[in-house]
Amino acid sequence: MSLDFFLEVTLKLLKGFSFTAEIFFVTLLFSLPLGLVVMLGSRSRFRPVALLTRAFVWVIRGTPLMLQIFIVFYGPGLLWESTMLPRMTAVLVAFVINYARYFSEIYRGGIEAIPRGQQEAAQVLGMSRAGTFFKVTLLQVVKRILPAMGNEIITLAKDTALANTIAIKEVTMAAKEFIATEAVLWPLF
Questions:
Q1: Residue 113, domain member (yes or no)
Q2: What is the pTM of this model?
């Protein structure tokens, strides 16, 4: 193999990797805080907000990410006869919505796992609700949700390959395209 060929392959794969990294980091940047908002909405005492966010979580949970990408990309053009979102924007919106749902469930599970006695003890000590949440509950929640968050972050890294369903040239698609057009199969013996 020549050096030019090696550099060409490397540049194509690095360009694909840059799209993969962009999808990964932008999704994390927006879905972590959005997941917290969704969790707070689902635990809201105002019934319509709680029902709306629970319905959102239920719908997103029941559909695969690939379908969500298709809906976000093709949906506006099909439903309202408007222009479609740019491909990368559609992928990012679908990923952020999907992973915000996952993170909201992780946050909710972490908060509900804290024994009620912890909050009662803080009230006896005279702490406010906000003080109890930030100084007692939140610190214990972080410890409990780290393994689940790690699993979802790993899954996000793997799910970025779904971006090629609407022709985003992330690293997997770049490698497939290279193999289909440039690869030479060497004889085994």
A1: yes
A2: 0.85
